[in-house]
């Protein structure tokens, strides 16, 4: 489901509402390895399938920050705004990684408008994102993502 609005200011009326849930994404080992190369985080639990098979998660897991970095994709999947000049990543208010994301698992996110307010630079929106892994009870990531729309 995608929420379609005309202007960023329309988000003020959507405070407290769920915008939608994405389709399932599969995080593969190639994507995890590329993220490791980009960030320099080559910890074996992410990049060494043989060693990770004997580790605490019985296989490699995605970086928590890789999961979080899907936020722009997640937002684009559930929200379309017609008249926006720019959508700027403005920050994070809260991030937690309660459960791992096994490589090869299916992941999706649900997005809620936590708050929205006019600012001199545009409309500042806090989106609540909850990432879940198919077949597990605990969320993989809970984040309050702040976006400034101009």
UniProtKB/TrEMBL annotation:
CDD domains: NodN
UniProt feature coiled coil, ranges: none
Domain MaoC-like: 15-120
Signal sequence residues: none
Name of a matching Pfam family: MaoC_dehydratas
Domain of life of the organism encoding this protein: Bacteria
InterPro entries named among the record's database cross-references: HotDog_dom_sf, MaoC-like_dom, NodN-like
Membrane-spanning parts: none
Similarity remark: Belongs to the enoyl-CoA hydratase/isomerase family.
Protein name: Acyl dehydratase
Organism: Rhodococcus koreensis
């Amino acid at each position: 489901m995608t929420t379609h609005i005309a202007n960023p200011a329309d988000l003020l009326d959507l405070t407290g509402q769920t915008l939608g849930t994405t389709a399932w994404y599969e995080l593969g080992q190639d994507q995890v390895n590329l993220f490791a190369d980009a960030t320099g985080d080559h910890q074996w639990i992410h990049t060494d399938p043989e060693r990770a098979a004997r580790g605490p998660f019985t296989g490699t897991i995605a970086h928590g920050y890789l999961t979080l970095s899907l936020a722009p994709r997640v937002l684009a999947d559930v929200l379309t705004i017609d008249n926006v000049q720019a959508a700027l990543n403005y920050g994070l208010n809260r991030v937690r990684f309660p459960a791992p994301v096994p490589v090869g698992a299916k992941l999706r996110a649900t997005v809620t408008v936590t708050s929205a307010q006019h600012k001199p630079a545009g409309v500042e929106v806090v989106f609540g994102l909850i990432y879940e892994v198919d077949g597990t009870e605990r969320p993989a990531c809970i984040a309050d993502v702040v976006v400034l729309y101009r």
